């Protein structure tokens, strides 16, 4: 109820309402100010409403007081029952769990106000599922209530859980849910055979590796806890049989390891043990988790085919053996109690089998045609043995007949029949390794020998060197061969084998003389190969000719440029004594080459004036100007050289221009050391050139020159 102090009760005040739910949930009496709810309220939907009220004058419509705000709070009542939002539940717990083992925790939610009264205080209880399980009233945790619950007795449990508000008091609302609990398996049961003795009947004709029977031990457990391993206890007959586990049925499958023979032994007895693969140590006290049963096997007599004395027969016979010659025999027997006679015959598959025959009663094998090892070296066929009393029972055996060789073919040289020799070949050089081949086949392997024929032994061209390992080398017997004199040589080589009787043949080896480089690589073996471009098209020939023309043009241009460069570098000063210094790029001939340098220019000063062409290159550095007196005729060359030497010693730009021309390199440790004038002394100290005489005949001319100069002038110029 709203009331203004200005309201005198005469109807001059009007009350208005605005805010949450005004006009829809709440309404106000404009005259009295009473507020009424016009529909039902739900606290869980909206717990409070914020409204604004104001008193205004009826006539002027002006507010009599400021607008006031107030909150209407919805008071809770217990109108919502607890609900299990995650139900129904599914849980599991291992069998044989102790009392109090945790199973699951359930939770119920009550939408009522937990802060007001006990409307939202929930208490849990079990309506169905006792006495197997219990639940905590406050937390909702479900636990086992009985010990040793056995899955093999009962596996599934359905528990009904109730959640009640108001603390479980009378009048409270309740909700329920279902919990499905499964007992999981543990290995608490050993395997057990349903009976102590198993009887099996097995035909003696059963194949090795085949299954001859099944036995089964029962394990009430589930999954891997029920997996069983079977083993044969060592004893009578255990070595003839084996047992494995069928993973799908957990049965023991007995298999045959060795053939059975009714005539040898008619019955076998052994024990089989069944045990669990996965044991649980908590249940060891229950006892051993294995069981044992006896297996008795009775062998059934069967009418069996004959049995050969060997699994395979191997025989040998020489080629060209006369028809009808017996080369061997096969033997088969009927091992059944009522022994029957055996008949033999060849299993015809192709025409090759017709080369041999077999005696139907005795089993002897003989030749039916002449045999040739070079045509067929081995025969492989089958012999069939059948019982006379029951021809349908047959056995087969393979027979291999090796044809032995008779030495009837001479050995021959293997390819190549043609080889080559270089024109520059040296004596004793191996130009070809040859081998031999023989169509005969010796059991111990063939040995071949090589030699020249008598008519070729006297010719001094080539010889054969037998390496005694079935190979031989063709060697030269002279230095050098000429294609112009003889292009082809024919070398007869005799080859013998080591079999009996000895066979030999003469093979002619063709040797072609070829032109080779210094490394022995063949360049051409005939004149036509040098000049004829065999197999080249017209376009290719034109391209080759164009390339040759271009190369010739390049060479001509290069020579022209070199000559022009030499003309530009010539120096024409007639005052310079260096006219005799010659610069060239080819290597000199040493001391014995007296044509490369004209020493007479040093002894005839007139040559200095006449020779105006300079052959060295002037340096770019500016030279100091100095007065050079003219050299008169008949001036002693010695005084002239001394004068020039003194001038050049003080002139850093004077020739030579420290240019080095290397003609040969003797290497480190040379007795002659350096012959360069770069490191020569500038003083006139005496120098002894007698050591030049010790350098050998190549320095004889140089030693004579300096020896003559020393005798002519005792002063040495360095």
UniProtKB/TrEMBL annotation:
CDD domains in UniProt: Cadherin_repeat
Tagged with keyword Metal-binding: yes
Domain of life where this protein originates: Eukaryota
A GO cellular-component term linked to this record: catenin complex
Membrane topology classification: Single-pass type I membrane protein
Biological process terms in GO annotation: adherens junction organization; calcium-dependent cell-cell adhesion via plasma membrane cell adhesion molecules; cell migration; cell morphogenesis; cell-cell adhesion mediated by cadherin; cell-cell junction assembly; homophilic cell adhesion via plasma membrane adhesion molecules
Keywords: Calcium, Cell adhesion, Cell membrane, Cleavage on pair of basic residues, Glycoprotein, Membrane, Metal-binding, Phosphoprotein, Repeat, Signal, Transmembrane, Transmembrane helix
Residues in Cadherin domain copies: 4-84, 85-193, 194-308, 309-413, 413-531
SUPFAM superfamilies: Cadherin-like
Molecular functions per Gene Ontology: beta-catenin binding; cadherin binding; calcium ion binding
InterPro entries, per the entry: Cadherin, Cadherin-like_dom, Cadherin-like_sf, Cadherin_CS, Cadherin_Y-type_LIR, Catenin-bd_sf
Intracellular or extracellular location(s): Cell membrane
Residues passing through the membrane, by range: 530-561
Gene3D superfamilies noted in UniProt: Cadherins (2.60.40.60), TCF3-CBD (Catenin binding domain) (4.10.900.10)
Function per UniProt: Cadherins are calcium-dependent cell adhesion proteins. They preferentially interact with themselves in a homophilic manner in connecting cells; cadherins may thus contribute to the sorting of heterogeneous cell types.
Protein name as it appears in the record: Cadherin-12
Upper taxonomic lineage: Eukaryota, Metazoa, Chordata, Craniata, Vertebrata
Name of the encoding gene: Cdh12
